[in-house]
Amino acid sequence: MANPAGADVAWGYGILDVARAWHALPGAGLPADAIASSVQGDAHDLTVHAAITAPAGSTGAPLNAYVVAVLPTNELFTLHQGQWLHASAGIQAYAPLQAGQVLQVPIFEHWSHAGAGLGGTALFVGYGADLEQVVQQGSFRLVHVLAP
Q1: Which terminus in the chain has less CB density within 10 A, N or C?
Q2: What value does the mean pLDDT take over residues 36-64?
């Protein structure tokens, strides 16, 4: 994968490759239908949605859905209550999620990022009791990478 303009030269071997490698491991990550995504359009008119289905057998602490954008500059942003927030204050949950529930997540609706320098931004969606559990259990998925 080519590095986006202004990105560290190691970007192509970074977070996207780690996520792909993790999900390629036998038994790692999510059930195939736990997180589905829909992408339409291009940099001038982009719509991205995700649907999270927490397994019905999920018990214990209440679950949360997370949406994280990783910019090529390695900055993190989180989608919380419809607003993108810089993750310097911590990754915020998008919404609570019940076991067996399907949660529809509109990430972008007819959004234009052309010329904004956001090409290569990776969008991840996941769920768990907290962010630590999301990472430990691999219950996240790369849903889209913004085109330049």
Answers
A1: N
A2: 86
